[in-house]
Each structure stands twice: as C-alpha cells, then as structure tokens.
Amino acid sequence: MLVTANRLRQVRDAVPPQQYLLPTECEFYQAYNWCLNPFPTVLEAIDRLRGEIDRLKVVPHDWQAGEVATNVFLLSCALLNAVDEYLRGPTLRMSRPLAAIGLGRSARWATEGLTGILPQRDRAQARHTTIDTTIVAKDVDKGTGLSVLRDWVLRPDAETIAVGDSERDLPMFRAATDSFAPANIDCVRKAQLLGCQIVRHPYQRGLLQIARSLVHPHGGSCERCAEGKALRPGGPTLFLELLQAADEGRARNLCRGLVDPAVFKILMR
C-alpha cells in the first residue's frame, strides 16, 4: 500500500487534535497562539520574553520546562540581534572573496574616504574590521545596548552577566554586574580594571570554563556536566565538529582544506 502526502493529510484532518495530542500538550500549546506571528515588534518580543521567564518558574520540570527555556533562548537571541542591528546602523558589509577583488577594494576605499569626513562631525564614528566598515553613533556601544535591554526586559537593578573577548566588549563589562572573558581577549589589563574575570583557557574551552563557573560557582559538577564530558570534539555531532574547527589555528585549517577532495571538486566546477 502506497501512502501519499495527500493521504496523510486526509487522515490528519479526519482525526481531531485531541485524539493525537495528550491533554497536557493541548493545554500547553494553546497558550502559544502568538507564535503564529512571524514578525513581532521589539516591544511584543520583550513582553513575550518577560512572560516566558516568569512561566519558567511555574511549569513542571519536564518537557514543558525545555520548551519554555527554548522560547527564552530564541526570544533573547531575537532581541540581541535587533539591538545589534540598531547599534551597527548603516554599514558596508561584504564577504571575504568580494573584499579581495577590485570591486570590493574600491567600495572599501570609497567608504574609508567617506569616514575621513566623520571627525568633523560630533555624532558619528567609524569602526573598521577585516571584512566591513561600520558607522555608528558615538554615544552608542555594547554597554548602552545592554543597559537598555536590561531596563526593558527586566528592571534597572537586575543582575546581568557579560561575556566577551575584545576591546569592543569593555563598555559591556562596565555596565554588567559581573563579566568574564576567555584567555584570548586582546585587552587583558583594561578588562581586569573593569572587574572582568579572565579564565585560564582561550576560545571555546574558555567559554566552557566560564559556563561551568556560572552553573557551579563553588566547584563540583552535576549529571549534565557528566553528559558533557562524554561528548568529545570531533564526536558524532556537527556542533562539536564546529567547536573543534573554531579552536584550531588558521594554518591548520588551511592545510586541511587544501587536501580535502571536496575543495578540488568545487574548483573543477
């Protein structure tokens, strides 16, 4: 017997939701009609995040807590992306291949020529990286973004924790209650003067050490820590492979790419 997609839809439509969903599932998901709105405003997202944080305190510690925690994570990421886009403002962004060709270099040259005018203006500043040039307001940085997000979502006296690894994160360290950085941070002395705690390991291992210190501030471990130790870089998940690649040096990644057969297949096309 061949079961087609149309047949499955007919069966699904013929069976009421109450018969293929548990009562607890129906009751839980009926409260999430707002998920059908793919374009919520910032204020709506803030209200939803506040509601999910409050709900996390009362839901049972089972799959429902996991669903609510996922919503908290996704809403937080959405708000942080919105703040980041606002802080970035008008910007010239291009991929590395484009930045390497004549057109990309010309566009970058024109943008840098434009930023030469900016010192005459009191409200803007230019920030350069290897792949883009960002023009932002002088009075806007990660510290002001964190403060605004804290006041909107929580309250002005709420405890905040900041994690960063560059000089641009210093204003965020100043605004946060506690701050942490991996060992690869490029402004150790300045960060320490702001009370930032710098851990022993760099990059991903440093971030893992920070996470463990936040979960277990007095040391020790739990069952979830044991589960994490069982997963090693290069293991069965793509996430762990990406973490391993992020910790490797550029030279090693380049050599690995040169001997990868998939690279030659792309070049042959």
Largest beta sheet: what is the strand line-up? 1-3-2
Number of helices: 15
Residue share in helix = 55-70%
Radius of gyration: 24 Å
The geometry reads as: globular
Structural class: mainly alpha
Extended strand count: 6
Distance between the termini: 42 Å
User: At the first level of CATH, what is the class of the largest domain?
Assistant: Alpha Beta
Key terms for this structure?
mainly alpha; Rossmann fold; disordered N terminus; single chain; 4 domains; 15 helices; globular; three-stranded antiparallel sheet; three-stranded parallel sheet; 269 residues
Q: How would you characterize the overall build of this protein?
A:
It is a single chain. This protein is mainly alpha-helical and 269 residues long. The chain is built from 15 helices and 6 strands. The protein has helices at residues 5-14, 17-20, 23-29, 42-55, 63-88, 96-100, 102-115, 142-153, 170-175, 188-193, 203-215, 223-230, 238-247, 250-258, 261-268; strands spanning 91-93, 124-128, 132-137, 161-163, 178-181, 197-198. The strands form 2 sheets. It has a 3-stranded antiparallel sheet, with helices on one face. It has a 3-stranded parallel sheet with strand order 4-5-6. The chain is globular and about 60 Å long. Residues 1-5 have low confidence and may be disordered.
